[in-house]
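Worked Example 4.2. Read the sequence first, then its structure tokens.
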Amino acid sequence: MADVINVKCPSCKASIVYNPSLGKFKCDYCRSEFTIDEINKVQEQIYKEESSTKEEKDPELVTYKCSNCGAEIIADANTASTFCIYCRHTSILRNKMEGKFRPSKIIPFRIEKKAAVTAFQNLSKGRPLMPKFFNNKDNIEKITPVYIPFWLYEAEVSGELAGTGKRISSYVIGDTHYTKTSYYNIARAGSITFKNIPVDGSKRFDNDMMNSLEPFDFNYLVDYSHAYLSGYLTEKFDVDKDEAFADAKARSTKSATDLMSNDMIYSSKIYNTNTLESKYTKAEYVLLPVYMINIKYLGKMHLFAMNGQTGELVGDIPTSVARSIIYYIISFIITFIIASVVLYLLYLNA
């Protein structure tokens, strides 16, 4: 059976979760509020007491028992915290968040679930062809807050960019117009350091979608604590830092190339030398807040995600076939009526 962490209220021992609007932990039962330091102090004491009596457990097991209702739950191999499907109690699987899988930092959620629900409801505004089904209450309630594993890189890009630049100028002498084309050897060399390049560390989530949620404000990174996971689903990484760096390498190299290229002002540029190479000098494992919802429409799954810190919302919005037909029929009728009126007026004035 997996080792489970349950974050309890220091006052009444009920389950307690992090409240984004307060920036503290608030108990829904006794209404007490606590800072992360106060919660950590209690959790450390609980862990010491449990460690003195528990038996050694297989870290590979993903079966755990809900401490609230006693139900046995099977978690995904990469799931670090989850809900009991019977009582909705949150359990944190300790073995999934220790050792190399323990994040160094986390950005706690700043957007509450009700704000995420409102943002999803507002998707229909200005989108008359979006299926009405998407705003169904049952779908909206599926919005889930998830801590996504990310690697944060500090990367240094160095090398040379060289080629040929072209400038075109024109002038007039008398009645004659002249065009002059000049060619130059151009080159830039140097190094630049990029900090906090985020790369999704889970194969479960699409990298392009996660990139679209940027930017995150990394000034709000805080030291990781298991307590922050209470009330939220959490994934651990299954893409290591060396493999994940391929995305950060491509992004940092492109940014460095663009910076050097933009520094050379010519009508056009052709490069025959590009030795820019990116290497990371630091890789930090962190958890970032994201709201997720996956809705099935006409046999296809449509995934939406919201940045749990900034509220940035991205997703694949489908088009309703029925609404499209009605929309085009109405558009045709309106266009036909307007054209008929114009032709009639022209006929009267002929």
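Now turn to a second chain, presented in exactly the same format:
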Amino acid sequence: MSVIIIVVFIAVVYMVVSKGERKDLGNNLQENNIVNNNTNGDVIYPTVVGNVWKWQGIIMSDDTTIVPAKPDAFTLTFSQEGQVSGTTDCNSFSGTYSVGEDGLVTWGAFASTKMFCENSQESVFLDKVANVDRIFFDEAGNLILLLKFDSGAIVFSK
């Protein structure tokens, strides 16, 4: 039942994103005081920092959905200093990030442990995260990462 709810939620996020409403997200975040500047002058989203975000699923623009087989295994954690770290169903990883005023995300290179795990969803997860170009939050406080070229969205919850 929870998988159905997640898939429906991701579909709703996709419909909102595909209608072009993402252009106003940066302005909405600023108006709601979600956007602040850190000491480097980069814009950050305080609700991203300090939380462990758990992957709920991905919906692609062609309506393909990917749901993690082990949802608690896939995480993202953002620091105020511009560091990102996480876990998959096989390895851990880290890197750098910055978020612009308009929600535009820039990632640095990721480093990862190198264990092999059969049937892991790690490569799909990391490939999609590395191809994110925008970040925002839905009304429920879920973290939504938008993929480049309007190709889909990744949903995380606390």
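Notes for the reader: DSSP finds three helices and twelve strands in the chain. The helical segments are 2-18, 25-31, 122-130.
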